[in-house]
Design goal:
Blueprint lengths: L2 H16 L11 H6 L27 H17 L4 E9 L9 E10 L10 E8 L12 H32 L9 E8 L15 H11 L16 E8 L16 H16 L30 H4 L5 E5 L19 H18 L17
Helix pairs in contact: 4-8, 6-8
This protein binds 1-benzyl-1H-imidazole and zinc ion (ZN).
Length: about 375
């Protein structure tokens, strides 16, 4: 073979090795999908331990805000003690609360490989807002977004066992330390999404705007692989207005459509395996084959992050639920099979994202879906 051909081949091989990182993405097996738990009675609206405690008004600066925060903190302390907890506090006036500074508090729960240094892990970032709208008085916001918060708590506790096993095995084999493989997960429970009077750039997204700004201006130490906490987000998956029957969640964003497809494929596979309870006329995620995209226009917590280049998967129904921003957006109007199906779909998506086939339970290991 002529020398210059060898040089070209060598160059291509090196380019492949050095420039294009090979990142595994292995679909979950049918066996693994069968083991994904739905959360069952934990989503019960009266006594369930995930959702019932937050089916209350949760407006920033009121006792309901504190009760919701306490619920999340108690849950992670009791069930997921290895997850880090961070508070991101800010204050702002609003158009209806005069000169008083209203406190907004985002909560971030994070599980990452124990060996990583600051700024070295990439983080699947699962997001919902926990505040509720100030009007109408007594508004609960069950789909908006108590149910999405409860779903994320369920996802976190399901991931934990597998993530722990993965980190233990990687430690034992000395496999840690490559930025693609050093994957973690964080749950962002954001405050102040709702407008106090009417949705504008300054009356909305109080928590998300403060967090995106703070993370943008918090550089990691020199030589870190990721520049700042925004840069660590491998995908920002935002759940909103989920829990009503017959949801339709389009694919909004062309650049992350591949991630939407991954989730739609999981839904399709779970339905065909008879693993989902709901029987909608159309899939929850019907747009796997979408080809033409228009600029997305739904304002939501992803906006300050997307503006800073973070990849977004926006899971919000269109049309919005009939109960949207009315007193009927309460526990009684949730469709429990739909809530539990979302819990399964998002959990399976996250397990797959985090490459958990590496620790797939063996069929006779006694593991079972709950
Ligand atoms: C979603 C849930 N949003 C508020 N609660 C965002 C939004 C506000 C979407 C106004 C459309 C219009
Ligand atoms: Zn709302």
């Amino acid at each position: 073979m002529p020398g210059h051909v060898i040089s070209v081949l060598l160059f291509l091989a090196l380019h492949q090795l050095l420039v294009l990182p090979v990142v595994a993405y292995t679909a979950l097996s049918d066996n693994f999908l069968r083991l994904v738990p739905s959360g069952g009675d934990d989503f019960d609206i009266d006594n369930g331990k995930l959702l019932a405690p937050i089916l209350i008004p949760r407006v920033a600066g009121t006792p309901g805000q504190t009760a919701a925060q306490q619920h999340f903190l108690n849950f992670f302390a009791a069930e997921l003690p290895e997850w880090g907890v961070e508070w991101y506090n800010s204050t702002s006036t609003t158009p209806v609360t005069g000169n008083r500074q209203i406190p907004f508090a985002n909560l971030v729960f994070k599980r990452e490989p124990p060996w990583v240094k600051e700024g070295q892990s990439n983080l699947l970032t699962l997001v919902a807002h926990y505040d509720s709208k100030i009007t109408p008085n007594g508004f609960i916001g069950a789909t908006d977004s108590a149910a999405p918060c409860a779903i994320l708590m369920h996802v976190a506790r399901t991931l934990d066992r597998f993530v722990t096993q993965m980190y233990d095995e990687m430690s034992a084999l000395g496999e840690g330390g490559s930025v693609e493989m050093d994957m973690g997960v964080q749950i962002l429970l954001l405050d102040g999404e709702e407008a106090f009077r009417a949705w504008t750039a300054t009356d909305s997204l109080y928590g998300a705007r403060a967090l995106a700004e703070q993370w943008e201006s918090s550089p990691h130490p020199a030589m870190s692989f990721y520049r700042n906490p925004l840069d660590q987000i491998s995908m920002f998956v935002l759940l909103d207005l989920l829990g009503a029957a017959n949801p339709n969640v389009p694919s909004y964003i062309q650049t992350t459509h591949w991630a939407y497809r991954n989730m739609a494929t999981i839904e399709d596979r779970m339905r065909k395996l008879g693993l989902l309870e709901s029987a909608p006329a159309r899939p929850f995620l019907p747009d796997a084959d979408k080809k033409v995209f228009r600029p997305p226009s739904i304002g939501d917590d992803h906006v300050p992050f997307m503006a800073r280049g973070v990849p977004i998967l926006h899971l919000i129904t269109s049309p919005f639920p009939d109960q949207w921003h009315t007193m009927d957006d309460d526990g009684a109007h949730l469709d429990m099979p739909t809530v539990r199906d979302w819990a399964k779909i998002v959990t399976a998506f996250a397990l797959e994202w985090l490459d958990m086939m590496e620790v797939e339970p063996k069929e006779n290991s006694g593991a079972r879906a709950v």
